[in-house]
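[Automated response] Your request has been received and processed.

Submitted sequence:
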Amino acid sequence: MGALHQGHLALIRQAVQENHHVYVSIYVNPTQFGVNEDFNSYPQTLETDLVKLRRLASNFWNDNSPGQITAVFTPTTRDMYPGVKPSSEIDGPGSFVTITPLSSILEGASRPVFFRGVATVCMKLFNIVQPDRVYFGQKDIQQTYVIQRMVDDFHINTQIRVVPTVREESDGLAMSSRNVYLGERRRKVATVLIRALRAVRTAFINGETRRDLLMAAAQKVISEELEKQEALPPQARAMFEVDYFSLADPLSLKELNNVVPGHGAVLSGAIKMLPIEELQVGEDTGTGNGQTMVRLIDNLRLEQVTSILKRSQSRARSPPVSGMNE
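Generated structure:
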């Protein structure tokens, strides 16, 4: 979708390590935005993106990387939707790919046309480029499930590769093109999402598996931050709303009442950072002057943490092996 950040570049770096030719597509797809969503204000920075890609391609060349960026595909909407003008209405006209029930839960419940648009544009891109592998970030985890289901159900000869979420080093915020809207004040509060997810992860590592007690750990973080912001005057606070928190089966994304150790779960959530109520003179309010509602998503895989913990414990009990690098 463009507005490239380090998360996008990480996908390209991974692709270059695993393929001789890498094709990068940049296209802001209108059909994955609802009627009242932020399509018109979504950051579109094609020229800046191309500069980043040229620099990255030069680095690959100089480093003798296994692969190279062969082409950048920047289609127009007329190219991608040559027939009926695409609609963002739920029952609007157009040729669409729908993947149910995966597309109607979590993100799909909040954004009814989102995954229809994502599946449709990915199907079109796969047909045009015919890639051996495609690369997605874990931050949009439900998207990876929807696309994997589409590839399986329609017998598309493409492998789906999922690359770990890239985060800001300073505060753990997942990188997103929409972060440019946050500004300093809202950005500090936006970390409540990853802090809540990490609180659940900590409870899980400590042996808790029941849904109600795991989610209570997230709710505690959320409630404390909300109370803190509500106590501040309008010119100092940044308010937010929780869209959802999910503790789901890692195979089906169906909600879990208990997490089975060894099977694990996908823990995900979404919040909405609300517009700033009162601006301060000279304040960094981000793109849109702090008046754009910013919806943020994030997730953690709980089974990854347990396996890491087990490996760590195993290493602690085992003698060192000479000549091994980790």
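Summary generated for your ticket: Confidence is low (pLDDT under 50) at residues 305-326. Strands lie at 21-25, 68-73, 133-137, 159-163, 240-248, 266-273, 294-301.
If you did not submit this request, please reply to this message.
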